[in-house]
Amino acid sequence: MSSRLGKCAAILAIAASIVASSFTLALAGSFVEVAKQTGIEIVKDGTALIWKGPGGVTKPRGPLAGKKIGVLAASEFSDFQAYYLASYIGEFGGKLDFLLVDWVQWKFTRPNITNKGVRGMWDLSLDPIPVMGTGKCNAKRLEEANPRDYDAVVVMGGHSADVMVTEEKVHNFLKEAHANGAVLGAIGAGSMPLIRCGLLDGKKATGDAAVEFMIKKIGTFVSAPVVVDGKLITAGDTVDTPAFVRALCQAFDPSFKDPRKDILKGKRILVIAGEDFEDIELAVPVMEYLYRGAKVIMGTFPAPMKSRPAMLGLNVVQGNFGMTVPLQEIPDKYYQIKPLSQIKMDEFDALQIPGAFCPWNMVAARQPIEFLKKANAAGKILAYICHGPIPIAAADLIKGKKVAGWLAAADAVRIMGGEFNWEWAATVDGNHVTGRTPPEVPEFVDAITVALTSK
C-alpha cells in the first residue's frame, strides 16, 4: 500500500512539474509579446532570441506615443530620476525634452554655463546625457520652449526644485501649461514650484519630507508611491519613478495596465558593482527590478585600480559619472550590499554586469572571473551589457553565444568564440542575456525578464 502511495505521489509530482514548466514557457512567451508591444522587433535565431530594432530610440507605439513631455531641470536635479525618465519615457512612445533652467547660478563647484549648462546632484549633465545621445531625449533652455507644445510637464526632485522655485519664468511656464490642459507631475521635492504657483492647493498629493509638511497644510498628503488627482501626478521619491512613469502612461491611456509590475516577484538579481561602472546601466535596471518585484543584491569587490584617488580607503564604489554604491538616492532598505566573495550560489537567480570599466576591473581582479565560472556551472542567468561581455569572455563562457554589446567588447567576444553583432539591441541565448549600450537598457531589462520567467 505504502509503495503504491509512493508511486502515486511521484506521478503527481512529475505531473505538477510538467504543468509548472508549461506555465513558465507560456509566461515567457507572453512576455516576449509584451516586449514587442511598443514596436521592437524580436526574432528567433536558432536557439537565441534577438531584439533587432528599433532599439535605443523613442518607440513608435505605446501609451505615450505622439505625446510631448517636458521635464524641468535646474542645477542639483536628481541624476537617478533623469536617467530613468530618459530611458522609459521614450520606451512608452513619448518624446522627451529636458527644459533647462540654466540662468540660475548655484554652487561654486558647479559654475553656471549659460549655454544649457545645468548639473545634477552627482554631476550629471543633460545636453546631452553622456553615453545616451539624442535618440530618446533632447535638451533645450526653458526660455526657448513654448509651454503650449507640451502634453505633460514634470518637475524632477533633488535640490533643483529649490533652485527654480524662485524663478518667475518657471512659474509662468507651469501656469500656462496648466491653463492649456497639460498633465503636471512632480517627483519627491519637485512639487515646490507647483506649490508656489498654487497648483497643489486643495489637491491630493505625495512627496518627500521636504514638501510633506506643506502639502498637509494646503491640500491632502497621501503616503503612497504615486498619487493622481485629476491632471496632477506626484511621486514620493526617486525609487517611485518607475511607478510615476506608469501613472503618466495611464493619464493618456486610462486602459493602460503594465504587465511588468511585480512580474519578477520571488526572483533575486545580483548586480556586480565594480569600480567605474556605467551609472545608467546600474541605476535604471535596479529601479526597474524593484518595480518588477525582484530582490536586489549588490556584489562588490576590491578594485585593482581606482580612477578617483580621493576615494581610496573608503567603502564606496563609484560609477563613471558620479553615482556610488551605496546608492545616494535609494535607501538601502530596498537592496542588500555584500562582498562578492561572500555571496553563495543559492542567494541569486541571475547576475547582471553593468558596463564602462567595471568589466575590466573584474578581469584585473581575477576573483570575479572565478565567481562567473561558478555561477555558470550552477545554471544562473548571466546578464551583461555594453563592456559586460569582456569578463564573460575572459572566463571562457562565451563560446557559441550570440552577443550584443559595445564595440570595444567585439574582439574579446570574437576571439573567445562568440558571435558579436552591433545591430542587435539585446539577446537571450540559453542562460546568457546581453544588451548593447545605455540607450538599450529597457530592451536589456525586458530580455532579462524573458530569461527569468522561462526558468
Could you give the topology of this structure?
Elements (H helix, E strand, L loop, with lengths): L1 H35 L4 E5 L2 E6 L14 E7 L4 H10 L6 E7 L35 E5 L10 E4 L4 H5 L3 H12 L3 E5 L4 H5 L7 E2 L3 H10 L1 E2 L4 E4 L2 E4 L5 H12 L15 E6 L5 H13 L3 E6 L16 E2 L5 E2 L10 E4 L10 E4 L4 H8 L1 H11 L3 E5 L3 H6 L7 E2 L6 H6 L3 E2 L5 E4 L2 E4 L5 H13 L2
Parallel strand pairs: 3-4, 3-6, 4-5, 6-7, 7-11, 8-9, 12-13, 12-17, 13-16, 17-18, 18-22, 19-20
Antiparallel strand pairs: 1-2, 2-21, 10-11, 14-15, 21-22
Helix pairs in contact: 1-13, 2-8
Explain what you see.
The chain has 455 residues and is α/β, with parallel strands linked by helices. The chain is globular and about 60 Å long. It has 2 domains: 31-56 and 261-453, Class I glutamine amidotransferase (GATase) domain (Rossmann fold, 3-Layer(aba) Sandwich), CATH 3.40.50; 68-252, Class I glutamine amidotransferase (GATase) domain (Rossmann fold). The strands form 5 sheets. Strands 1-2-21-22-18-17-12-13-16 form a 9-stranded mixed β-sheet, sandwiched between helices. It has a 7-stranded mixed β-sheet with strand order 5-4-3-6-7-11-10, sandwiched between helices. A two-stranded parallel ribbon has the order 8-9. The chain is 32% helix and 20% strand.
